[in-house]
Model the fold of this input.
Amino acid sequence: MTDSKPTTTWRAARARWHFALAAFHRHQGNLGGSRMAYERAVDQFTHAIDLDPLFADAFMQRGILYWREIQNYHRAIRDLTRVLAVDPARSDALYYRALAYQARGDYDQAIADYEQFLAMGVGSTWRESAHIQLEGARELRSAREAKRGR
Done:
């Protein structure tokens, strides 16, 4: 029987390499607004995740990329949900997932995530923003319900 530790360590190192490449491509996309650079970043984050399926930061950064730069809210929500499955204490994943739900127009889910994020009581830089976003999501939900005649 062989020791899998060196293989596991090598895979983790390769995953971090792909993560760094993804960050580079994302930065290039941010500098020039290149959709192609964002797609390269997604590919590199995906390689990192394939090598280390518990790499929460890779799921997080790919999820944020899907939400903010690519506007693929479904995939953003999927990745951010995976972050929470791997590391339930990652309150920032709740915040970003709430933003993705809100951008998709799913105000009930956004409100639930903002409330859960705030209830965690973590001293996050996003706490004040979460309060503002929560009120905005409630207002948008109310406006939509009023428009529907509820």
Remarks:
- The radius of gyration is 18 Å.
- The chain has a mean pLDDT of 93.
